[in-house]
Amino acid sequence: DNVAPLWLWRSCAVTRSCGAGDHSALQPGKVMSGPAHVSRVRLLYKRILLLHRFLPLDLRALGDQYVRDEFRRTRGATAEEARGFLAEWEAYKNTLHTQVMESVTKKTEGIRFGTDLSGEKLAQFQDSQIGQLYELMQEATKPNRQFSFQDDHLPK
Predict the structure, then answer these.
(1) Is the pTM of this model over 0.85?
(2) Quick one: average pLDDT of 58-82?
(3) 20 to 30 A Cα–Cα from 103, which one of 71, 109, 126, 128?
């Protein structure tokens, strides 16, 4: 069973086309930088970080850093890469939103955030993506994680 927080592998699978939004103006090979695209990416980014506030603090810190790095890394993406990237992160946002709403309404301790990674999805990854996934999985499952975090609600 390949279980990991969803954001650990979400941005790696960028081969599918986006089902949401109108991307008819996107031209293959062209770098994405129009105002509408930038606005959509910024909104998605902010919504993901907002949803991360509901994660346990250690997973929030790791997830926030991963999201920042991934969005920064894809600033000069081509139209095809942007479509896949946005589709995967939109799906992540929707899944996390559902899980957050479930955790809030049920108020259950120990709710599991994330989803199973299917063998089919895993088979689509390149070797470097598998390595990245493995490193992130190791970090996310460490008993004493090696990153720092700050809770906005803690006195400074």
Answers:
(1) no
(2) 88
(3) 71
